[in-house]
Every structure is written in C-alpha cells, then in structure tokens.
Amino acid sequence: MSQSSLSKNISAVEEELGVTLFDRNGKHISLNSAGQRFLDCCHHILNEYESAVDEITAMSTGTTTRIKIGACGNINRLLPIMTAFKKTHPEVEFDINSDIEHEDNIDINEYDVLVYPSESKYSRFSGFPLFEEKYFLAVSNNNPLRKSAAVSVKSLNSQDAVFMRSGSLNEYSYNLCSALSVHFTSASFVTSRAMHREAIASGLAVGFVPDSYRSLYISTGNIELLPITDAGFTRQYNICFKRKKHLSQLAQEFEALICKQLKIDVDAI
User: Fold this and answer.
1) What is the mean pLDDT of residues 135-141?
2) CA-closest candidate to residue 253, choices 89, 75, 127, 126
3) From CA 222, how far away is CA 139, in angstroms rounded?
4) Which CATH superfamily groups domain 134-234?
C-alpha cells in the first residue's frame, strides 16, 4: 500500500470514529491512547472472528484443530506439555495470547486455557495453583547496587527506574512499587522486553524482571539480577479451563494431559 493510500485510510477511519487516533510530529506518527484502545478492540474483534470460524468449522466437520491459550506473561510451564501433545496430535494449532494482563475484561469463553495471577482482578475464575514466580531487580554492571546480596525496594528512592507499559496499563511491579510508596528519581516506560533490557544494560535505569524472563536479561552479560526481600514480589499463578461442554474434543484431550502432568484433580473441575 502506498503512503498516500495509507494516509487516506487512516483519515477515513478517524473521520468515521470522530476522534484522532495518532499523534503526528512531522513525518513521524504514533498511536495515542484512543488509537491504542481502538487497536486493542480490533484485536478482540479479530479474535472473536477466528473463534466464530473455528466454531462453525467444528459444527460442520465435527472437529477443530485450534487450541486458544491466554496468559499473563510467558507459558514456560506449559511448553513441555504442548510439545508432548503436538507429537501425538500433529494437527493441533496453538493460538497464544500472552498479554491478557493488559485487557480490561477477560472472558474465559474466549480461551480454552487461561494462566493468570492470583489477584482480585481474576477472582471470578475457578482455577488451580500452577506456580509461584519471583521478581528480581535488574541493574547494570556499573550500578553500585550490583554488589548487594539482596535489595529492598525502599532503598530505591534515589534510583531511576524503567517499566513495561501496554497501552495505558503499567506492569505489575510498577503498581506494587506505587502501593509501597516507593519514589524513584524518575520512571521511564517502554513497550517491549528488548527495549526494557537494553535500557537497564545501558545504565539508564533499574528494572524489575520476573523469573520466567531471567535468561533474556542475563544473556547480555552486563546485567545483574538481585533478589528482592519484599514479600509482594512473589506472584502466584493459577490455571483454569473453559467448561468441558464448550471445549472441542482436541481441547478436552489437551486439558486431560495438562491435568495428568500437573496432577490436577480432573473431578474437581
């Protein structure tokens, strides 16, 4: 698509919605908060469309090959089970959304499997304990804190910090620091793990890293991960499933394998 055609399409959408979706600075444009919200809604609509196609296919053929997984962060604990399932069911297609934490309203009916933190936002889900994840403080090798055996967030008041952000929502550790009244010298925000890692490695700021992303940060060789003494920086994750009557046959078999591997009482679901 040419730039002029793209610009016309953007203008047409903005005119139809009656709102500006982008901030324009010369030749550079970026999504504003309204644009990000509209993008999130579009993703939701497309997911609904894919689900509808799956359901119609299942109605007409009696089967579907797609299994949808929603998660807060990565799904390392499920990957070995998914690999084993793929070997016996090569036709399976996994559809993974690892960013459900930044969705306002999560509907279990959109997913066959959900992995979510044990917090009030998700209290309506009936799940089972899956794992606990610790958070670490990530600092560059030239930060004086690197020699510490462990740190308390109360000692970070004079530090610059960098956090992840998706749309208007901040990462868990930022909200936790705010609740603990931690006052950083400054707080910067990025939208990707790669940029988060590079900002820390450069010495620009310190950051918080969940254990499941540990290898991504220490692979650079110039970042130290320090244990955090504050109890709140350990997060409990649960797993739950769509009601069995709404699961495809393939998804039911996947659920059974998860329950077997994780020793979940199937009769309690």
Assistant:
1) 95
2) 89
3) 9
4) Periplasmic binding protein-like II (3.40.190.10)
